[in-house]
Amino acid sequence: MKHKYILETYDRIINEIKNPKIVFENDFVPFLLSCTEESYLIYKVNFIKENGIIRYQTKEPIHNLHPKFEEINTIETFVDENLAEFIPSILQELNLDSKVVRLYWSTKNGSDSLYILADIDIEDLTNETRFFFYCYHTLQKENERIKKLNKETIFNFKSNQRTEQYIHKKQYAIENLAARLIKDINPANTIDIYKYSNKYDKKDCLKVVYIYLEKILRFIEKEYRTYLNINIQIPYRSILVKEFEITDKLNQVKNLLLGSTINEGLLKLAYEPILKVSTIKIQEKITYYEFNYCSDYIAAMHNQLDEENISDNAIKEILFDLNFNSAHFLQYLIFEVQTELEPIIDIKEKIDLLYKYLKNYNQKQNRYFIKYKECLPPLKVQLTSWLEEEINYLTKKIKLDTNQVNDIKSSDSQIKLLTSLSVAQLVYLFSLMQETEIIKHKNQMDIFRFIADNFQTKNVETISVDSLKVKYYNVESATKQAIREKIIELLTISKL
What we know:
Layout: H1 8-18, H2 20-24, H3 29-33, E1 40-50, E2 53-58, E3 62-63, H4 81-84, H5 87-94, E4 101-108, E5 111-119, H6 127-155, H7 160-185, H8 202-223, H9 236-258, H10 264-278, H11 288-304, H12 312-321, H13 327-341, H14 347-363, H15 379-401, E6 417-419, H16 423-435, H17 444-454, E7 455-457, H18 465-473, H19 477-494
Parallel strand pairs: 6-7
Antiparallel strand pairs: 1-2, 1-3, 1-5, 4-5
Helix pairs in contact: 1-8, 6-8, 7-8, 9-10, 9-11, 10-11, 14-15, 16-18, 16-19
């Protein structure tokens, strides 16, 4: 079943914002009257007491239909007579008649505020103001409709797969529209997107649209977290919320790293995820996957680091544990091994050292369920693969040096089996055989080499091990579907 595009109302509002002639030919008064029983301006006056002197500060008034409106709740509290004395001069300054205003006092956290409510007819608001309120309240109602529609639609799905597909489509539609809005608004900074001017101009209206798009994404994020496409851009509001939760840890880790004496190159590597979170701007794209990894990274660093144990080895251990599979960190670790190998002349001693590294890294635990670069294999796999390749190369070199050339298989004379599967499908099939223990061999590199040495496809005569590694750790849905169909075909044949 084809699902209806959910952002039609958003597109219509954006079209009206960008074509003001369409807007001002219409009258939004009846619509706005349906949104509220009252129409008034709210003036907030804050009182400040310093050194026995009382002064007050008056903020710009907002209408009760404004997005930033906070419902006035009368708080029964004693009002200082010294503050009440200021009321006549405040009203005079604001050019308000005391007979037609309502006054409310509020005391929060020891701070006194006065709210002055002055009635105003919606017809007396400017066209721009009325249209701004129209955009806000239309989208507020539309979001409620979309939330209800999503819940009803998803409730009727019979499988998690259909729910996931549905959520992903909605995410893509919202992300694409939000990205276009950011370009149109071009905010001066990360906070500007959430601030309205007093002009209620085109930018203000576009900000309303963007903010309500974010609200839909936030709703999907909270209600359907397990179905999210984690490679889609995370709403900036979510970043702000989560940043607030980790700010203290972030600052402490920053101070520990910058105040340490660890190797400068290692410091830059360890600081990379921290920099990604602390310098993010609204115009930049950071996915759920990236942000979640960086947040977990900061929390783990905070838990495991302290001033006494901060050293090169401690940082490397943490980065390995966190599966920090950056290509630069891999090169850093490889360079360390190469530096230790360089002064060794005897090849057997080199192989022995490489085996020690291989044993140590194979025995290390790390978090396979998360990794820094989603498109790359886990750090442990990359590093052990490199060590195995080096051992394999040096072993062959010894055989060549001792004239044992015949022990090395000639790739020219070797027969390869032709398969109708693609390289991606072939390696995925072998991974399934491993998972089901049809193949019990544990060394992944041996399996990659076996496939490369013994198979060819219609399009690829020589399959590279690197290609197999990449496709093994990044399986596309089309690949899974193709193998699923082949397995069904096998099951059908087996019944005959």
